[in-house]
Amino acid sequence: MLLTLLDIIDLYTPTSDYDCIGNQCSEYGFCQDHLHNYSCNCMPGYEGPFCEVEINECSSSPCKNGATCVNLIDHFSYCLVSFAGFSGQYCEIEMNECDSSPCLNGAVCQNDVNRYDCFCPEGKFTASIIS
């Protein structure tokens, strides 16, 4: 058998671009050539042998405090808050309504979930503000 120069080079070259020709990677995968085959490297948010499966980021239930997860395309999800009082990507941070100093005249602010109470100094005021 007589080998051509191209055959000899191909035998001793660790990789060749020929395996990626006609590959089956989806539009969300990039072909990576190997010695006698190829693999698909997936973009974030996709998996599978050909990067054909979109990952559902909501399947792990990342949202906290009663928030609803919404799965979006391209490796992104966000949480919809079912009620106010929380922030953060996963609604995991309780907001402190006392941070804005809503209580006046020396009243002490006590934070609660989605509300605050103002406690007036004893003997000075008789009203309590609840927001």
Automatic annotation (TrEMBL):
Disulfide bonds join 42-51. Keywords: Disulfide bond, EGF-like domain, Glycoprotein, Repeat, Signal. The keyword Phosphoprotein does not apply. It comes from the Eukaryota. GO terms for molecular function: calcium ion binding. The keyword Disulfide bond applies. GO terms for cellular component: plasma membrane; protein-containing complex. InterPro entries: EGF (IPR000742), EGF-like_Ca-bd_dom (IPR001881), EGF-like_CS (IPR013032), EGF-type_Asp/Asn_hydroxyl_site (IPR000152), EGF_Ca-bd_CS (IPR018097), Growth_fac_rcpt_cys_sf (IPR009030), Notch_Cell-Fate_Det (IPR051022). SMART domains: EGF, EGF_CA. Residues 16-52, 54-92, 94-130 form the EGF-like domain. GO terms for biological process: establishment or maintenance of epithelial cell apical/basal polarity; heterophilic cell-cell adhesion via plasma membrane cell adhesion molecules. This is EGF-like domain-containing protein. It comes from Anser cygnoides.
